[in-house]
Amino acid sequence: MNLKDVVSVMVSLCLVGCGGIEAQAPAESDAPGTLAQAISVNNNTDFLMVYNVNYENLPTASEQCAGDWQDLIYYMKTQAYSPDVFIVHQMSGAGQAATLAQFIEDNLPGQYASIVAEANPDPMNSPCGAPKDYQTNAIIYRTGRLQPISGTKETWQVYKGANGSCVMNTQARSIGVRMAFTDLITNKKVVLGSSHWPTNQEGPASDPGCAEKNIQLTDTKMRAISGANLLIWGVDSNESDYGSNGYKDWYNQANSQIASTLNYNWNDPIYEVCSGSRSCLEDNWTVGSGARIDFLFFNAAATSSHGHTVTYNEGDAADVQFTGSDRDDLNYSSHRAMSARIYYP
Question: What is the pTM of this model?
C-alpha cells in the first residue's frame, strides 16, 4: 500500500467513525500518475468542475433494481478534468459515501472526501428492497481544491404534499445538506449543497409537489452563509421543469434567465448550454419518462460552460475502454448525471 492509499484509508475511516470533518488529506500532486489517459486535476483559477446525480445507492447487477454504477466514474476518466465537486443523492450513509470517494480516488487523479446529511439514515422500506432502504444526500469533494470551513454544515428537512397542503416530510432521504469550503487555489469561499425532494404530489393544486416551498427553503439555506463567492447545489426534485402550460412556477422562480415575478436568481448549466431550446432540454432528460427532474444550480452572478447530461451509452463505452467489458443492459443509475464547468463571477 503506497502513502496515498494509507492517507486515503485513514481519512475515509475518520469521516465514517470520528464524527467530524477537520482531518484532511494533504494536497495531491497535479500529475495523473500512472493513469494512461490525459485527465488531470483542475488547477484553473476560473472554474470548478462539477457533477450531480441521484446515484441510487450505487446499484449493482445482483440487486432487485440493478445497475452498473462504476460506468459514470469511468466516463469521468474520459474527460479533461477530475471532478472538484460531485453532488450525489441516495447514498446509504457515511460508509457508502466514503466508498464512492475512495473509488473515484482509485480511478482518477486527486484525493477525495465526503460530507453526508445523515451518517446513519433511518430506513424507508424502499420498493427496490434492502439495498435502498437507507438513503441520504452527500457532497464528494476534491481535498486538493476545497477545504471545509468548520461550523458551516447545516441540514434541513423539506416539504411534501399532503391533503392539499405542504407539510414537513419525514424521510431521511429528503434531509438536505449544505457546507461552505475554501478554494485552496483562489482562497475564495464556495457553498455547496445536496438535496432530494419528496415524491408526494398531494399538495395545493398550484404546487402539488410543494416544489415552490422547497425552492424557497433551499434558497434560504444556501444563501445563509455570508461572503460566498460561488454557490452550487444539486437536487433530485421529483418535479419536472416543464408541463403542459410551459415552465412550471417553481422552475421559473429558480432560473434567473426566465422571466418571473419571483426570482431566486439561480442558473441551470443545461439550460445555458441549450440556450433555452426546448428540444435540446428534452434531449437532456434525466429519468426514463423523458423528463428533467434532476438539476444542478449555481448563483446567477456566476456562469457556466460545457453543460452536459451523461448518456448511458457514454458510460457503457467508457466501461469498455477502461475495463474491456460492460453490462450494456444495465445503466449507472436510473437517473442521468449532469456536469459543467462553473465559473466564479
Answer: 0.90
Cell of 35: 493513469
pLDDT digits (tens, 9 = 90+) for 147-200: 999 999 999 999 999 999 999 999 999 999 999 999 999 999 999 999 999 999
Q: Is 148 helix (H, G, I), strand (E, B) or coil?
A: strand
Q: Are 90 and 132 in contact (CB under 8 A)?
A: yes
CATH of 3-18+50-343, one of 2.40.50.180, 3.40.50.1000, 3.90.1150.10, 3.60.10.10: 3.60.10.10
Sheet holding 85-91, edge to edge: 112-116, 136-142, 85-91, 47-54, 338-343, 303-309
- For 332, which DSSP code? S
Residues 120 and 190: beta-carbon distance below 8 Å: no
CB atoms near residue 10 (< 10 Å): 12
What's the pLDDT band for 37 if we cut at 50, 70, 90?
A: low
Mean pLDDT for the chain overall? 91
The CA–CA distances, whole Å, from 34 to 4, 106, 187, 299 equal 13, 11, 30, 37
CA gap 51, 200 in Å, rounded:
26
